Amino acid sequence: MTVHTVISPDKRPGLAAEGVVRSDAAATNSAASRKLYKSRVPIYPKEAEGQYRSFKWAMMAFTLSIYYVVPWLRWDRGAGAPNQAVLVDLAHERFYFFFIEIWPQEVYYITGLLILSAVALFLANALFGRLWCGFSCPQTVWTDLFIWVETKIEGDRNARIRLAAAPWNANKIARRFSKHAVWLTIAGATGGAWVFYYNDAPTLLHQLMNGTASLGIYSAVAGLTFTTYTLGGFMREQVCTYMCPWPRIQAAMTDTEALSVTYRRDRGEPRGSHKKGQGWEGRGSCVDCNQCVAVCPMGIDIRDGAQLECINCGLCIDACDDVMAKIGQPRRLIAYDTEANILRRQSGEAARYRFVRPRTILYAGVLAAVSAIMLVTLTFRHTLDLDVVRDRNPDFVRLADGAIRNGYTLKLMNRTNRPQTLWLGVTGIKAKHIKVIGDGEITEPVAMRVDADRVRTVRVLITVAESELHSSHELTFVLSDQARGESRAVKAIFVPGAAQ
User: Fold this and answer.
1) What angle, rounded to 10 degrees, do the helices at 107-128 and 246-253 form?
2) Taken in order 229, 235, 236, 242, is the CA torsion positive or negative?
3) Whole-angstrom Cα distance, residue 124 to residue 248?
4) Which of 20, 41, 193, 436 has the fewest CB neighbours in a 10 Å radius?
């Protein structure tokens, strides 16, 4: 058995000098007794004041206003169509966004929006760091709101720390109860607002208030209330650090030329306490006051350099600027800057900002290309469409005279807000009979009335004589709007059956 000689941390005389011999088993047991994960240390951020704090308040008001107000905006789409400006109508398989209406067959528009969002996030990160995380992310917005409520009820940072350490008494119970009651109210409003995007808002509000909404609606509100309350009230920075994938992804989307909240160590070091009247020769501007740490909602020290947890909210900039003003030093010891500029200053070069770089050109180009494609397709999108599905069970039917019949299900789509008369025809096959069930045989294009913003499903039976089965088995269904001069053609296959 191998043995290890370990110097004991015990301070008793003699033990440190002679050492302590332990076996592998003892060493293993000691390691197992240590915790593998560090318990979360609650963060009590100090309330900051300044330019970035004001901007965060403005962004909170703006984003929350959009979230709560948008479901109540109206948009006239004509009779029979919903008049809610933004609506995800799952019951009728539609997504309405003001003048845009997306059908299930146009899911590629949703894909395009997701691509645009991702590339825009990449571009913003390459230019300005994690601005989305610091100012616009829902987790940041609601966490900021919850912390503001906590501050108003429990007091400033020091008061909250004292309250957390104090024994339970009437004062602590009252403050905690009040805080959680307000948190639950905000969380409930959050969950309630979300379901309005999937239903007519005034109608659903009435149903929610009088208890006639469906169980699914109440379950959705309860689930969203619980997640908002938990993530914004309790997990906070843990969501950004452990649950969100973006901090890991953004490392590949950025470089040393990207702006981010940066401690200018070329100006701040060496740091240390400073007394009034002392000179600044041979030392940096950082007085090691830790105010940047006290205001950080993530609980990190920006002076340690770029960190995964930093959300670039800029609150440490406000706190440091306030201290610099008090000690008579220039502001922006912590600032939006680049790592490349820190190195340039340390080597005596002038700082410069390179917004045009290969990666930003690439992201901007992709963003412009996808935007242009979506704009063109939206501008020239069809107001009618046609889907064709051939029967598979059975593939074909052999009739008494030897002819073969295939069945097809057609979906005729009218995307306008008024009823349309569309014309359906079949070309490309020498058919004996072409029959639309309910409308008789087609000898020439037949008129089919389709209601406004609706899909009409029809069944078509095509019979080919035995003598013609050797010819082409490809056919084309053509749907046209003669008034608008618009048409859609969909190819299909005719199965001739097995040879006899």
Assistant:
1) 70
2) negative
3) 16
4) 41
Question: What type of residue sits at position 430?
Answer: K
Assign residue 361 a region: left if phi > 0, alpha if psi is -120 to 50, beta otherwise? alpha
Ramachandran region, residue 179 (left: φ > 0; alpha: ψ -120 to 50; beta: rest): alpha
For CA atoms 104, 106, 108, 111, the dihedral sign is negative
Q: Which two tokens stand for residue 16?
A: 């440190």
Q: Which residues are CB-contacts of 224 (< 8 A; sequence separation ≥ 6)? A: 187, 190, 191, 194, 195
Residue labelled with tokens 């957390």? 164
Q: What's the predicted TM-score (pTM) here?
A: 0.80
Closest CA to 496 of 476, 471, 477: 471
CB 433 within 8 A of CB 441: yes
For each of the chain's 500 residues, which pLDDT tens digit applies? 444 433 333 433 333 333 433 444 444 445 445 566 677 789 999 999 999 999 999 999 999 999 999 999 999 887 778 999 999 998 888 899 998 888 888 888 999 999 999 999 999 999 998 889 999 999 999 999 999 999 999 999 999 999 999 999 999 999 999 999 999 999 999 989 999 999 999 999 999 999 999 999 999 999 999 999 999 999 999 999 999 998 888 878 888 899 999 999 989 999 998 888 888 888 999 999 999 999 999 999 999 988 889 999 999 999 999 999 999 999 999 999 999 999 998 888 998 999 999 999 999 999 999 999 999 988 888 888 999 999 888 888 999 888 899 999 999 999 888 888 998 888 888 877 788 887 666 666 788 899 888 899 999 998 888 887 776 678 899 999 888 888 999 999 998 876 55
Structure-token match 């990160």, residue found: 125
| End-to-end alpha carbon distance in the chain | 84
In DSSP terms, which residues pair with 490 in a beta bridge? 477
**Where do the domains of the chain lie, and which CATH numbers do they carry?**
3-33 (no CATH), 43-381 (no CATH), 384-493 (2.60.40.10)
Helical pair 51-69 and 138-154, crossing angle rounded to 10 deg:
110
